[in-house]
Design brief:
Helix content is 56%, strand content 17%. With 109 residues, it is α+β, with helices and mostly antiparallel strands. It has a single domain, classed as Orthogonal Bundle (Arc Repressor Mutant, subunit A), CATH 1.10.10.10. The protein is elongated. This is PadR family transcriptional regulator.
């Protein structure tokens, strides 16, 4: 990623993680890679996010063996689905408000 970096809020990061997990379950490293494909974030930032989402009941985990070790998979819960819908609603409002300025829509003074 080149150029200006726009800061991402914790709420938006939560929304990205929840949206990815709505599509499929992911183990931590693969989920981090998926998020990193769209925003600049470190692996050390992702794991606290996952722990917080799990503590809040938005995610659950399960382990699956892989090459002699266990991989911890993250899965969206019903509460996480509801939270994602709320974040998406807030995002649409926020995006619409910014678009009014960026694209000069709405009332002019």
């Amino acid at each position: 990623m080149n150029g200006m970096k726009i800061q991402i809020t914790a709420e938006l990061l939560d929304g990205l993680v929840l949206a990815i997990l709505k599509q499929d379950d992911y183990y931590g490293y693969a989920l981090t890679q998926r998020v990193q494909s769209v925003i600049d974030i470190s692996e050390s930032t992702m794991y606290p996010v996952l722990r917080r989402l799990k503590k809040n009941g938005d995610l659950t985990t399960y382990d699956q063996p892989f090459q002699g070790r266990n991989r911890r998979y993250y899965q969206l819960t019903a509460a996480g689905e509801q939270r994602l819908q709320e974040i998406l609603r807030l995002w649409e409002q926020y995006k619409d408000n910014l678009d009014q300025i960026f694209y000069q829509r709405g009332e002019q003074q």
